[in-house]
Amino acid sequence: MRYLFKCGTFFLLIYLLFSCAYHNEEELYGNEAINPCDTVTVTYTLDVLPVLQTTCYPCHNQAAASGGVILEGYNQAKAIAGSGRLLGAISHSPGFTPMPKDGAKLPSCDITKISRWIEAGMPEN
Ligand code: HEC
């Protein structure tokens, strides 16, 4: 009986140890879930514009339109996006010059968000 009790305590400790480890793992995944790629609520102002501003405006603004492409301003961005050239360039599709020029490809989350925005009809939201 004493042995059984000791044994039980031992297994209880093991169980607690593992459940604790498991719990930590859950917390880890939980933290990752705080920053998922949210492609459901995509807006021009919060998702598309910041990417264009930081990575594209330097070469595609009103004053310096590399390749004749202006992305500064909603109407300009919408026109390029509507023509298919925006997505073609950032997704490095054949037939388009890969963008950002001489830079790293955008994070896939940004590309997905921009493509969702285009699919949604490029709303000015
Ligand atoms: C370092 C300057 C630079 C940056 C940064 C840059 N571009 Fe460009 N972009 C160019 C130049 C120069 C061209 C002209 C085409 C060429 O070089 O062949 C061009 C062309 C384009 C084209 C036309 C491509 C085609 O095949 O029709 C699009 C669309 C475009 N850029 C979008 C973007 C987007 C979107 C970004 C940001 C993610 C971006 N660019 C960042 C320099 C840049």
UniProtKB/TrEMBL annotation:
It comes from the Bacteria. This is Cytochrome c domain-containing protein. It comes from Rhodocytophaga rosea.
